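Supplementary Note 3. Input sequence used for the single-chain structure prediction.
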Amino acid sequence: MIHEVDEVLKRLLNSGALDGSGIDVSFDAPTREWAARRNAPAINTYLYDIREDVRRRERGAMAVRDERGVVLRRRQPPRWFRLSYLVTAWTKQPQDEHRLLSAVLATLLPHEVLPPEQLPGALGALGLSVPLTVAGLHTESRSLAEIWSALGGELKPSLDLVVTAPFPAFPEYDAGPPVTEGAAVRVRGMDGTLEGSPERHHQARHLTSAPAPAPAGTAPDADHPATGRPDGEKRAK
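The predicted structure, written as discrete structure tokens, is reproduced below.
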């Protein structure tokens, strides 16, 4: 799932304001060694934090239906994870880096939600839209200064890019066929056999159906709503 998010981001960053620019998009850690090796302008999209968005967690099972609406399988709801990327621009001049970051903003801001048809592989097969936020309030436990210190580099202007992606939960299991007949009951004889015992099929009664009206001149009661007396007994006058 994570590599599919990487694929989506790389496609987005190579479009929009950056379309045709030939800027390299890298997912490597922006360490001093990486910076020393590069020899062309680049956009670095470093995944620095992965954690579950527990506010989106769901319980129960989801039905997988065919084109007729028949339930074929059931599966657990997906778990959602926040993938946080540190986006930086790398050129020879700070002004050029600022231009690149501005182009990244212009490219990503129109894509607040990524529809399923724009998502590859198993990520798109879930049929869920994926939210994307860029340059929002930094909410992760580690500060950007701590991240740069861990990378061994100097602090640079950066954009915090967060993609909240679903991860399919397992297992997925087949559902039983739809019920087409009512329950059948057979009674065993004293000898324990079923010989001569016919099946009695039970059909569910609608609880919302209204009781039959009482005949004129009678008052219904709980024993027999039609006649007002048990077993059809006539009411004494």
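Residues 94-108 form the longest helix (15 residues). The chain has one domain: 2-174.
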